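Protocol step 4 of 6: structure prediction from sequence.
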Amino acid sequence: MAAPVSSAALSYAILRRQPSPICSFSATFLLPLSSATLDQSRRVSLSSVWPSQLRSRRRSLSSLPAMASEKALGSKGKQGLMVFDTEEELSASLAKYTAELSEKFIRERGAFTVVVSGGSLIKSLRKLTESPYLETIDWAKWHTFWVDERVVPKDHEDSNYKLAFDGFLSKVPIPPDQVCAINDALSAPGAAEDYETALKHLVNIGVVVKSASGYPRFDLMLLGMGPDGHIASLFPNHPLLNVTDKWVTFIKDSPKPPPERITFTLPVINSSSYVAMVVAGAGKAGVVGKALGNEKTADLLPVEMISLEDGELTWFADNAAVSMLPDKPSL
């Protein structure tokens, strides 16, 4: 007798045969949102959307267990840091932050566009799959994307889709046709072009907003960072860091396996309304110290190149991740 097929394996199989409708331009997809719904002028500061319980704990970086502050990054957005004693506290606060932004954008324009990465980030989203968020978030209005993806089958152990499905997507009721996974039947160049075409379609029908500079402007990017300072599949000193004429590009020589991937370009990341950079563990401490310390060098790491056009970047970190910050009060 054949072994029973798991729901996850069945989902992977279905998606391999028929890519998500959001990426194949289903005629039954959402109607365009009205211009009033898409009003971008009603922006609020991070402190006004931050849950009240966390706002009351926003104090200098010398204060633990939770500490936060903001600084202006020239004329380009703001940067804040939240530090927690444990990863458990970090995950709980990340869930509150995400839920507040979900409510804000759904109220303002009827949709919430969320970009996720792979790695340990998905584990940090686990609180969203529990009460009260599972019942109170309007999941039907979520549209989910990946900042990068490995060009492998969706049921492959290296797939960011599989990681997100197992740890998050299979546990929340986001409509499947609002989950934009890559077409893994294509080559890396073909998958990148296909994904960018899908994004352009969503911009055209009003689901994704376009920034002033012409790139897609996602409501929230939930990102992790590698121990080498890479974000998405943008690695230190790699030519892809300089790509500005594409929304989505590809890499065939990734320093980290698997070698073939697609990735959002840096201008797309920098066009976001909000970015949460989630880092935990001593293995990230050296890079965090370089990225957030006052001493800057010419050889910027990819994570240091995040400079939002008109948005807010918040670091969510545990004590171990900031243990090498030489000047904590400076942020």
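Step 5 (inspection) to follow. Residues 180 and 228 are 28 Å apart (CA to CA).
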